[in-house]
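Regression report. Comparing outputs from two consecutive submissions.

Submission 1:
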Amino acid sequence: MKSLTERIIEYAEAQPEATPIQAEDLLHLGDRAAVGRTLSRLARSGRLLRVCRGIYMRPIETRFGLRGPRRELALAALCELWSETIVPNGGDAANWLGLTTQNTVRSVYLTSGPDRILHFGAHRVELLHAPSWQLAAPNRNAGTVIRAVAWLGPREVEKSLDAVLPKLSAEDLSELLAARKVMPSWMAEPLGRRLAHG
């Protein structure tokens, strides 16, 4: 008969990349205390990654050795698991839009949930709680613009909107207009003026 360790590894290896694994997913294999101890042991030995308290993922084997799951897949899976929004921070958004050449050294994402530190092997990701208006239009260009402008701040709002709005599609502009109602006035008012003349 296979050991609990072997059965948990089999379960983990059968899951798609970046699937969160929790003790409650494994109670069909053993009692909670034994499952918890085995998950901890597997994380210490490197056979599973402890992403954060109570959440594990399997490392991915490559020809160069083991790596953590792809960050985008892992964050999408955690969004679903926790029913939270997780989006790139404003500095990354501003860089992506060409509004700054600065690259962030730390991997920081904004979330509707609590602050957390996630570990994907050697890679560390910080989740920082953000106000709901900064999380508007997740995974959309309009949301990227909102986060970039928020990061650049009120003194840069006019210049950043002038640089980015001409590059957006009609759909993006419509989504930005719809999001104005949740934005602070320092962002909503200059955006409204530009879109009214667009």
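Submission 2:
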Amino acid sequence: MECIKRTGKVTAIEVKNAFQGIATAQKTLLVLFGEMMEDFKGRIGIARAQSTHKQYEVLYKQLKQFLLEEYHVGDIPLAEFDLPFIEALNFFFRIKRKMKPRTVKARIVLLNKVIR
């Protein structure tokens, strides 16, 4: 199933939808993030700064690492992006990555911009 390749797991809803023939082509967090970064890259020097793009690249790599280490998946559907996910990410940044609160806040704000 495509979902196993994409996220490494299958939910009961996805099994039900597959059984009923309902398509569940969801966007995933890292796919959306990558698309946003490509759009951002095209506007560097016009309406965006190179330094801000670098911050997004760093956050993208950190998110990939977080998903692999904590969730053991390569990406997650946006439907699973919820408060417990953000709390786990916050814990990962503060405890495992030893980031300062100000840096963690800046990362979460950037992530919020991606999702919006």
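Expected: both submissions complete independently.
Actual: both completed, but the second showed a warning that disappeared on reload.
Relevant detail on submission 2: The longest helix spans residues 50-71.
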